[in-house]
Specification:
With about 210 residues, the chain is of the alpha/beta class. The chain folds into two domains: about 50 residues, Helicase, Ruva Protein, domain 3 (Orthogonal Bundle), CATH 1.10.8.420; about 140 residues, 3-Layer(aba) Sandwich (Dna Topoisomerase Vi A Subunit, Chain: A, domain 2). Helices cover about 40% and strands about 15% of the residues. It contains eight helices and seven strands. The protein has a five-stranded mixed sheet with strand order 4-3-5-6-7. Helix 6 links the parallel strand 5 and strand 6. Helix 1 packs across helix 2. The radius of gyration is 21 Å and the shape is elongated. The N and C termini lie far apart (about 50 Å).
């Protein structure tokens, strides 16, 4: 229940909207709104226009589902990337975390989550069929699984493995002991980079 008393309904409405953001409590929300009020109208207009343009114009790469300004992201379109190597991740944040290691030169595939029956998320809710079709084109030599080290992540890993194991490709997994998924962004770059370099065959990971 909201027990705060605001001198302005406009202020209250703005605080309510900021408080909807993840990790933003009501006190932080109020501080952000008051900060904006101290800025010039030009700066606040620019801020608002940037957010509106982001929501309206941002795209998802048609090849890997990463965030992009164009139909094909800069990673997929780069001639310097190894197109025969695909790293499968849950989210766009994971792509950013791995890129920051500077230890990976292949491409990515963003699933959009993991299989989680408790949350009502099944294989059909993810981009698994798109991944399988991409592999079936025959231009990939290795798929690296970089999903959460959780029951849901392992379930998704195994589901994809069963879909791909008859393809003429290597299937590997990033070395365990590294936080994946929502926590991947907090893993230090050296540790994450080593986990990519020291990846193991998926069959060996199953044996563990």
């Amino acid at each position: 229940m909201n027990t705060h008393i605001y001198p302005s309904k406009l202020l209250e409405n703005a605080v309510e909207e900021f408080a909807k953001l993840p990790g933003i409590g009501r006190k932080t929300s109020l501080r952000l709104v008051l900060h904006l009020l101290r800025q010039s109208e030009v700066d606040v207009d620019r801020f608002s226009e940037t957010m509106i343009k982001l929501r309206h114009d941002v795209k998802h790469c048609r090849i890997c589902n990463n965030i992009s300004d164009t139909d094909v992201c800069t990673i997929c379109s780069s001639p310097r990337r190894d197109g025969t190597l695909i790293c499968v991740v849950e989210s766009i944040k994971d792509v950013m975390s791995i890129e920051n290691t500077h230890q990976y030169s292949g491409l990515y595939f963003v699933l959009g989550g993991v299989i989680s029956p408790m949350d009502g998320i099944g294989p059909a809710d993810l981009k698994i069929d798109q991944l399988v079709n991409k592999i079936a084109e025959g231009n990939v030599r290795e798929v690296i699984m970089a999903l959460s080290a959780t029951m849901e992540g392992d379930t998704t890993n195994f589901f994809i493995y069963k879909k791909l194991k008859h393809q003429s490709i290597a299937i590997s997994a990033i070395a365990r002991g590294v936080a994946f998924g929502d926590e991947l962004e907090y893993t230090d770059e050296v540790t994450l980079g080593r986990a990519i370099i020291n990846r193991v065959r998926f069959e060996a990971a199953l044996a563990d």
